[in-house]
Amino acid sequence: MSQQKEPIRVLITGAAGQIAYSLLYQIGKGDVFGQDQPLYLHLLDIPAMMGVLEGVVMEMMDCAMPLVCGVVPTADPVEGFRDVDAAFLVGAMPRKEGMERKDLLAANVKIFKVQGQALDKYAKKTVKVLVVGNPANTNALVCSKYAPTIPPENFSAMTRLDQNRAQAQIAARLGVGVDAVKNIFIWGNHSSTQYPDARHGVVKKGNDDIKMIDALPDQAWLQDQFVTTVQKRGAAVIAARKMSSAMSAAKAACDHMRDWWLGTPDGSYVSMGVLSDGSYNTPPGVIFSFPVGIKDKKWTILQGLSLDDFSKGKLEQTGQELIEEREEAFSVCAD
Ligand code: NAI
User: Which structural domains are found in the chain, ordered by start?
Assistant: First the structure.
């Protein structure tokens, strides 16, 4: 019999919330860290939610998942963050219908300052941090700033839901399965300024890889309807469901962390909000979504893509928004 792996510790904040409700099952059954990776789940929420969290813990137990060695429900950040190998920072104040991102930002960056400090003090230095709570990019930046002993490349923000949405739109338009479409990228902020970019995409037909430009030559649709549908998809779900995306957000969080943990296949790239080094003339020092390839738990920004003037303009616009968010966040944190 092969030797069992050492268990890892995985933190989920906002554990009593709606995204976590879908996320926990997928993590617990091995979809993220592998079918052979035992884990302890640290579930952090605020004191007022401890009753609800108790119910979630009962259900986790009732799922009878062999990989789950133990569950630690807590409102104490020290207990929550101690020795964690991976952290899904989901807990935040969710966007309600009609709420401006600015209001959301002020309310949320303070949470992420405190959590950055807790990560710095109690988590493993190798911890991989995925920020889901909005405004995700700027929250991730604040978190990293207040965790100076953890490498900045260990912090990321989720734009995978946007990528999944974009991929699904392209697949539907072409009448193919989603797995036939790859290398659809999200640039910039997880906000309505994000730039969903299908131009470097590839579509599998039989044994052939067809370039997007040949598979879907409708430039007008790609520049207009496709971009706005993906940009506004979150708002459309809120308008219909009266709550923000949860099932699809949890699935995307799993996709993001799984690829970070286990790597991406050669020639496949995924979108992740990571610290910009100025690639593609983006503003250095903000968390910007780029196409990345991942090997040995390290991401690398895909270089050498040619961007036309339309794309350059979109990258500039979303980069500018991230600069403004950074200024606002740092001034809120300094108070
Ligand atoms: P929810 O309101 O159902 O759950 C949030 C949970 O976080 C609540 O249980 C709340 O008590 C908890 N929480 C608040 N402050 C906390 C703190 N300081 N520490 C620990 N827990 C705390 O919200 P939902 O739907 O689960 O969404 C969570 C976040 O994810 C929101 O900010 C939402 O905007 C964001 N989101 C991000 C997406 C992305 O693509 N990046 C997609 C969808 C949602």
Answer: 8-156 (3.40.50.720), 160-324 (3.90.110.10)
